[in-house]
């Protein structure tokens, strides 16, 4: 049903003023001191992020960016329609922030300092309004239909006055209901007409208003037929489609919200006298000295000035192995200090830091993907002018052949109703809902409304390595070279630590005792006295190993004066990865591996799985660049990843997937989530996407055939508005039944070794 609510003819229909903050914020903005939220960047320019309410189309975005950019000193103004965030950079005085807020207010938009957590509230509010409108229309439709059935069934037995009474009761129900439930369409149509454009809600609104007006005229003149039931039924059916479409839109921007939640909201600022002051992250300036305690997130990009520790850098590299951190090393926002306290010098404000850059890339990718033109939207481009022309020609034609104005109006309204886009609108959502439900039973969760359409076009698939093709959990690789006593000695220390290498040793050794008085030395390892001997387990340099023999995937055990024993670790390939890769190759997909891990580790996994194209030490920006290259060549790449560093690529790819074990941010950026602990659902969903595309085309064909057959009947007066509404409902039922023919099969899984 009218899921086709956004096209190049005007604003998205069915949307009100976003967060409903326009009225509140326009007044509140005067009492907010926006200067407090301005950040001064490393190059001396100022930056401000605002949440702008009342923005609901590309025209609004262009209007805001054009007017803000016209202000003196403004270098950059970018509005994101998905998250409602406006980012402005300017030179000069900080107090331009208040001038910007006042300008937005004069343009009719509400403002407040940006808060990503408020973004989904607007969509949820719209969803609630749609649900209420749909419930009211459904209840009224059932009751009016009962009254209509009573009139039909008692034909010849009910007096004219009794029939008129029944019509008046129907009018008392229908007119308020259409006014309440139909405002979704009326508001959108009015907004489009005000902007001197049209959208699909214009003929819908016209049909509703004319059907009610004609029915009221018929009732006042005590004529036998009215069409209140047709108007309310039409409203109800269209609202169902609008509600389903809005539910799919609710997830827009979710990944950006998850990233924002990872950003540290406060930082420990070291003052010149050595005291510590907690400040908002947005107040940190380049050159500030910050204290990062063990277990804390790094709030902004910085350089270590004092302290030795280890940091969880998986947000940047996607790898499970912690990185050694020492004075002079750079750390990035979102990384976690897992060792000793560090003092860092801030190198950037929070907006220019790594995590914020990742968030911006994700938002840009989501907005780019949201501009994807759906197949139903393409089919709907000619809808409005054709329908309006048919209805007008029908009206004029009946007048020209001598028909009464009433007859001409009835037939014109029948054309408007019978051509309402219920079948066209249901053609895609019906298939999506059926396919999504059945894929879920096969272990695949569809998160995006148009994901199946985009998945059907995929020709290239890019994989991340760690956590995607591999398990993302370290395991002891050379256990056969280590004696049982040596393994147990290391395990007595390792069981006391949460370090990934220590956990791998503890798993390999199994349950057992702990050594006494264990000391964990940041950046080095674990130490204790066992059976009167000093035992160390940690880095090679600490255990007396030459640096060239000490690699990131190794740890060493030193017992007394004995020769150090090497412990080698590796990330195991998922048991089903090879099978999935072979299936995808057989179907003609081009495969590629891009990993943030070392070149050597990336090469090993690529060779083991038979992937010819691969690269290691790839940054999030590099992955985006590679996707851009493929898309510029006219290809349609899919990204499969699990790390936070994969989120921008997942958002920018034509389609994307992540395993259920992926980070929340990553899952929020993906179109599909592979449930369970395998990748077997990936070939399944790609096959189903192609089948679903075929069903969509069949449904669109059925909708076209229906209109070809039904419209001439309405034009020549063989169909009144009530029969038109029934025919419209039958066409919707037909495309739904066709969608239910969707079959989802899961191929047999090969035994793994």
Q: Please tell me the overall pLDDT.
A: 77
The N- to C-terminal Cα distance equals 49 Å
* Structural category: alpha+beta
Work out the oligomeric state of the chains in this entry.
single chain
Radius of gyration equals: 32 Å
What is the makeup of the main sheet? 7 strands, mixed
Instruction: Determine the fraction of residues in helical runs and give it as a percent range.
Output: 40-55%
β content, as a range?
Answer: 15-25%
Side by side, the strands of the main sheet go: 15-27-26-25-16-23-24
From the spread of the alpha carbons, the general shape counts as elongated
Can you count the beta strands? 27
Q: How would you explain this protein's 3D organization?
A:
The protein is α+β, with helices and mostly antiparallel strands. 47% of the residues lie in helices and 17% in strands. Strands 15-27-26-25-16-23-24 form a 7-stranded mixed sheet, with helices on both faces. The protein has a 6-stranded antiparallel sheet with strand order 7-6-8-14-9-12, with no helix packed on it. Helix 7 packs antiparallel against helix 14 (405-418) and helix 13 runs antiparallel to helix 14 (405-418). The longest helix has 35 residues, at 119-153.
């Amino acid at each position: 049903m009218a899921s086709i609510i956004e096209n190049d003819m005007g604003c998205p229909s069915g949307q009100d003023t976003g967060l409903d903050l326009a009225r509140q914020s326009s007044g509140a903005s005067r009492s907010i001191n926006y200067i407090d939220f301005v950040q001064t960047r490393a190059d001396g320019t100022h930056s401000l992020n605002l949440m702008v309410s009342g923005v609901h189309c590309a025209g609004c975005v262009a209007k805001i960016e054009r007017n803000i950019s016209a202000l003196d000193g403004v270098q950059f103004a970018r509005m994101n329609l998905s998250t409602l965030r406006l980012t402005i950079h300017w030179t000069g005085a900080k107090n331009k922030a208040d001038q910007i807020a006042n300008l937005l207010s004069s343009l009719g938009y509400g403002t407040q300092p940006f808060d990503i957590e408020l973004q989904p509230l607007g969509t949820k509010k719209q969803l609630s309004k749609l649900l209420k409108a749909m419930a009211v229309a459904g209840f009224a439709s059932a009751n009016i239909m009962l009254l209509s059935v009573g009139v039909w069934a008692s034909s010849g037995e009910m007096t004219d006055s009794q029939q008129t009474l029944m019509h008046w009761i129907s009018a008392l129900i229908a007119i308020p209901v259409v006014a309440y439930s139909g405002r979704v369409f009326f508001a959108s149509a009015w907004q489009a007409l005000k902007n001197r454009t049209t959208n699909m809600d214009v003929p819908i609104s016209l049909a509703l208003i004319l059907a009610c007006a004609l029915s009221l005229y018929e009732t006042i003149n005590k004529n036998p037929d009215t069409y209140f039931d047709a108007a309310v039924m039409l409203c109800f059916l269209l609202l169902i489609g609008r509600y389903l479409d809005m539910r799919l839109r609710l997830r827009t921007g979710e990944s950006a919200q998850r990233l924002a939640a990872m950003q540290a909201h406060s930082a420990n600022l070291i003052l010149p006298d050595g005291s510590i002051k907690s400040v908002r992250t947005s107040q940190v300036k380049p050159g500030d000295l910050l204290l990062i305690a063990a277990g804390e997130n790094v709030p902004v990009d910085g350089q270590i000035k004092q302290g030795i520790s280890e940091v969880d850098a998986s947000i940047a590299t996607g790898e499970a192995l912690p990185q050694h951190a020492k004075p002079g090393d750079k750390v990035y926002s979102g990384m976690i200090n897992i060792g000793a306290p560090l003092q860092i010098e801030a190198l950037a404000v929070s907006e220019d830091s790594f995590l914020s850059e990742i968030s911006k890339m994700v938002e840009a990718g989501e907005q780019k993907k949201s501009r994807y033109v759906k197949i139903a939207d393409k089919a709907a481009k000619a809808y409005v002018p054709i329908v309006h022309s048919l209805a007008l020609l029908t009206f004029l034609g009946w007048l020209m052949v001598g028909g009464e104005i009433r007859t001409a109006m009835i037939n014109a309204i029948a054309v408007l109703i019978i051509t309402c886009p219920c079948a066209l609108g249901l053609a895609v959502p019906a298939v999506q809902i059926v396919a999504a439900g059945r894929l879920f039973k096969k272990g695949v969760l569809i998160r995006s409304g148009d994901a199946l359409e985009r998945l059907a076009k995929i020709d290239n698939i890019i994989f991340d390595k760690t956590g995607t093709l591999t398990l993302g959990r370290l395991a002891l690789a050379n256990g056969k070279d280590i004696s049982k006593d040596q393994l147990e000695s290391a395990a007595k220390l390792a069981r006391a630590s949460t370090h990934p290498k220590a956990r791998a040793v503890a798993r390999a050794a199994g349950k057992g005792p702990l050594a006494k008085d264990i000391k964990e030395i940041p950046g080095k390892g674990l130490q204790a006295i066992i059976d009167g001997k000093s035992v160390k387990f940690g880095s090679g340099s600490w255990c007396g190993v030459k640096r060239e023999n000490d690699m990131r995937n190794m740890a060493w055990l030193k017992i007394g004066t004995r020769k150090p024993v090497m412990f080698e670790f590796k990330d195991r390939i998922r048991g089903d990865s090879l099978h999935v890769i072979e299936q995808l190759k057989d179907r003609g997909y081009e495969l590629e591996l891009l990993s943030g891990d070392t070149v050597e580790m990336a090469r090993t996994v690529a060779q083991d799985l038979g992937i010819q194209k691969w690269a290691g030490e790839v940054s999030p920006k590099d992955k985006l660049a590679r996707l851009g290259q493929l898309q510029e060549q006219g290809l349609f790449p899919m990204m499969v990843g699990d790390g936070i560093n994969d989120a921008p690529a997942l958002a920018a790819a034509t389609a994307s997937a992540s395993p259920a074990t992926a980070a929340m941010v990553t899952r929020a950026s993906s179109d599909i989530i592979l449930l369970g602990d395998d990748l077997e659902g990936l070939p399944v969903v790609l096959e189903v996407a192609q089948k679903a595309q075929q069903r969509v085309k069949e449904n669109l064909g059925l909708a076209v055939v229906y209109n070809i057959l039904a419209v001439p009947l309405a034009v020549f007066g063989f169909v009144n508005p009530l029969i038109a509404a029934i025919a419209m409902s039958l066409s919707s039922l037909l495309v739904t039944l066709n969608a239910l023919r969707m079959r989802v099969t899961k191929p047999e899984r090969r035994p793994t070794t």
